[in-house]
Design a protein that fits this description.
mainly alpha; Hypothetical protein af1432; binds zinc ion
Amino acid sequence: MNSLVTLARAYDFAAVKHIGQRRKGDAGEPYINHLTEVAALVAEATGGADPDLIVAAILHDTVEDTGATPGELAASFGPRVASLVAEVTDDKSLPKAERKRLQIEHAAHASTGAKTIKIADKTSNLRALAASPPTGWARERRDDYLNWASEVVARCRCVNPWLEAQFDAAAAALRGGG
Ligand code: ZN
């Protein structure tokens, strides 16, 4: 299928699946803003060379955070998109600390595409923490997130220098943000 049509369908699918969800920050941005940002980062980082990767970026949280299933993604967007999303999906049946540990452990073995999505995802999350910190997040909790995200990204490096620089800038802004 024409990749622009697929892209439009992916945005629509994500908007419907994440309907009503908001980011954790005080501004309570609609969740779709996170997905458009991650997809834009991936698209810019890759010059749009890999449409499946941008589609997977749009859909990257649908299995983890909505009722979407891997089979549904495979049927609608193809097996490669479903597999990229699966690579960046945490097993929510596990305790949070274990999920976070596994993300660090799995990152190094992820495909180049999954690494690209992970760096873009963490960049978007750090930018959001700087722009609109969640109420009740003390400095320490923000630093914990920053350190964990940096560990994940450290294992994803050498896939895209431009994208890694975006992450580094977001991390530096958060560190300098007091
Ligand atoms: Zn995400």
